[in-house]
Predict the structure.
Amino acid sequence: MNLLRKKSVESMVAQATPLKRTLKTFDLTMLGIGAIIGTGIFVLTGKGALTAGPALCVSFLLAAVCCGFAGLCYAEFASMVPVSGSAYSYAYVAFGEIIAFMIGWDLILEYALQAATVSAGWSGYFNKLLEGFGIHLPVELTAAYGTTPGVTTYFNLPGFIVVLLITWVLSIGINQTKRTNDIMVMIKLAIIVLFIVCTVWYVNPANWKPFSPYGWYTFQPGSTKPMGIIPAASIVFFSFIGFDAVSSSAEETVEPNKTLPRGILYSLIISTVLYVIMTLIMTGIVKYPEFAKFVDAPVAGVILATGLNWLAFVVNLGALIGMTTVMLVQLYGQSRICYAMSRDGLFPKFFGEVNKKYHTPFKGTWFFGILTAIAGGFININILFELVNIGTLSAFIIVSAGVLWMRKTQPDAHRGFRAPGVPVTPILAIVFCCVLIAGLNWETWVRFVVWFALGLIVYFAYGRKHSKLGAAEGGASAAQSGIAGGDQASDNADAPDSLVSFES
């Protein structure tokens, strides 16, 4: 039983399927920005400011540096193995089947939980937007059960509906997905720039003192949660999750060897600059302890502090658009991961069937879209969002280690992009990922181990038995045995009678 059987780069590329290649560098950059800029600015800056103070901008930089090193490794792999599947496909080439399956399993959890978590935040902003027009949904239908302390809620209806709408857009074709995402990202960026231009004049540098009230890492008396720059970086790392989904679009990208690395790196750079500027402005307008009053809607709280009430409507709209693009990219990446795993036989064929009309994995897209909508609609998953972080960081570690391994084992393989500074770059990516993982609480580790164990059960119960690579190896072994047997019979036929009789 070979659990570490590998696929070659050539066989991966040869399996490319009839998905339409329409995405260019601009589209991939918009896809990356769409995934990155959303929840980080409109939701997590509040919790991050309470954890790190004004030094939150350093936390964002730390998370960005981690993603930057990992992004360079992703870019090299994307140019080397330009197929769907992202870290799953890269691990299959570098380390073997069981490692690839577990990373794919992690990515499924990452994308689903992030999309479901963001749908909860989207619902909150949507309800506020409706209230501005005097429309009030029944409170029981505004959030999942147990989400809001002291308020009886049962179902997140707005979040449920928006996930289904996004799933529909994804299912009918990459062109529709591309246009929808590009338009929304451009609007979102325009709104963020408007916020910066209008509020920068209200910054009071005195609010930045002390700049780092909790240092790099500390525990406050009576608290079990760490405080400081590193724990805040572990929280806001959630903001950057999604750029790796860009590499999942390899089979729908024009000239993936060039455009994928550019899309990954451009989206990271643009998003990081905007995050740093936004956090400096927000913590400069409002003293960091005051974010506790509006931790779930920090941008709206900052606007109220400036008195620019007219800007609140615009920013609410930007938050809705921003979180919509995040969910769109996450659900897109999830469907492509499952598509790649199904094509390799590790998931049922159902997830890998390409619709002849839309040229998309139609059934698989709807299957996980509906599951994600149900999860976001009924389950309070706010306590699980750190699972997204640990799953993604694990994938980053595997991809970075994969670059080191492939440089050693396949130094002459074609690479449209080569990560600079190898082996230092992937080693630094691994180190930064481990630092951020250390900032997560122990409950997250326990939940991750449980999910990992479930993945092993699925692999041994289904994936290993249906693996196409395993079937091909088994067929090759059988053929070799047949050839060997035929050769032996031929030799016996030509042997002297006495020898044949003796061997009998």
